[in-house]
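>> received
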Amino acid sequence: MVPCDGVVLAGGASRRMGQSKAELLTGSGQTLLDRAVSVLQRAIAGTVWISRPYSYSAVSARDLVDDRPSAGPLVGIAQALQASQYALVAVLAVDLPLVPDSLFTQMYERWSTHCGLAVVYPQSGSISQPLAALWHRRALPTIEEALKNDRPWPVQKVVSRLSSEHIEVPLDILTNINTPHDWTRFRDAGVAP
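>> returned
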């Protein structure tokens, strides 16, 4: 198990989906949120938090509620890095249903050989995914700078300003569910977990 805490990013508004992506049911009857939590619980040694949207009210001990509306996933990453007892946090967006728990071990092995890194993330060709990644506490100053703006920087811009490396993965691991069409195509392909 990777010695870190983790956070499932489930704070998005799911505007393009038209309903909460976190509550979509997989082929096994598990929600995407429950699946992501399970992946991290199998992968890491520490606590798994859930980053919730700004308006979320049913708060439990494992919830990190966005402290401002429409700030994006950087808020959840920052809150997890601030709350963690570890220097590393495993991040997994709820809408990445094919990310295996073994990916975090692979990324940790890369980080262990390059300890100065702030982010290790998966990539397939030119497609990268920093929302299924290991983030180090040294990324916090850059994240905080990004969040000072009225329109926070995109996650990719933050990563580009940090010491980072990627590991190559098969493209299907990076499957992202954003729209009803994405979800239907994913379910019809018979690959829904």
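>> The mean pLDDT is 90.
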